[in-house]
Fold ATP-dependent DNA helicase RecG.
Amino acid sequence: MTYQDIEALTIKKEGNSLEFKESTGQLDRSMETLCAFLNGEGGTILYGVKDDGKIIGQTVSDSTKRSIAEAVNRIEPFVDLEITYVAIPGTEKYVIVIFVEEQRFMRPFTYKGRAYQRIESTTTVMPQERYNHLLMERGGKYGWEAMINPDLKIADLDENAILGAVREGIRNGRLPETTIREEIPVILKKFRLLNDGKLNNAAAVLFGKELYDYPQCLLRMARFKGTTKEEFIDNQRAEGNIYELLDAAMAFFFKHLSLSGKINGLYREEELSIPYKALRESCINSFCHRSYHHPGSSVSIAIYDDRVEIRNTGTFPADLPIERLMEEHDSKPQNPIIANVLYKSKILESWGRGISTMVGECKRVGLPAPEINTDGNFVWVVFKYNRSSVVVTPQLPHSYPTATPQLKKVISVIGTATLSAKEIMEIMSLKDKTHFLDKYLYPAIEQGYVGQLHPENPKHPGQKYMLTSKGKALLNE
């Protein structure tokens, strides 16, 4: 930094990222401001400048430098600062400049044990709510996924989903065979989901059954007509754990993306307009690496005539710019506990190769590489394709029916029986009848999978439900 740079800065007014101090005699107060800059978008402090921007400078001795160093060391966590001593021409005085860049993934910072924030040109003590929010964003032991939910019980988790994850892990050599014989609490503890008998948020995200307390476990899906959001063709929402949401996402793709056929040797292979593996990898990344701490957040899928956009809350690590994502890089998951379980259960194929898989799959079929974007709050991936270039086949692969996880659950519970709504709810361990009817039973009836014993009188006191031929066919699949 030059003296001309100092002059240019002093023309500006103090604000969110700029502070003037007459001397390091105001060191303590200025460190509070520096802490606030670190908790914001970064900033610069100039010593030897009056509030009105007049440059007066100050003498700098070894004692001055030691005082600054000692004060900076009281900021936690440790951060590398840029300290510059700029000589004032024609004098023996200096302007001392301390500059800090934005440190999004290390916040919150404290000075002498207290956190500060900057509002316009004022530095204040940070409210506890804001401090807790930044702690969750930092991750690690403070991350949202690791936080204990004292109201969450093992009975609230889907035991079949837990054992299914274990079986996949054993089948693919990522878990020892003895794991399947262990009790559920032992498995959860090994997955780092259970500590001292208490479950964390990651357990609900991965294996929760009824997620009333987790509205962010949501997937929004839309098929738009044309290339804008002006008109819907289809609009769906799915709620559930990661495994259920991934199933729902892939079913939606198979419903709305054309299938083409190609001959490979003696066999005909079916291909989506965008490769299945690329879409699946993008969805897995969205569920695995998204920010969950905001209750109103979700993952969204938007299908247009020329592209597919998959969006989630979150951003990339500060030291991993977008341009490096296309290269081989180490994986730094936002939610390491969730990522570890997905890896062990073979949902997450390997560390740090998800994006290269997407790129490779798109190139394999002659599509451009996916575009990856972030604005610091959201990450979205854009897959471009040309619908006119595919040969459409009317049928869907039986392995990926368009039924939602909720619908498939109703069908599996009813099976070959004839049951009342109360009996179905008891088997599914559901207590909210309105939720059950709206999310499970009514959609199954409307789509023709479930029939009524008394269809002429839907409110018949002896009403019971059974699978239709369509429901039985899906059950067999």
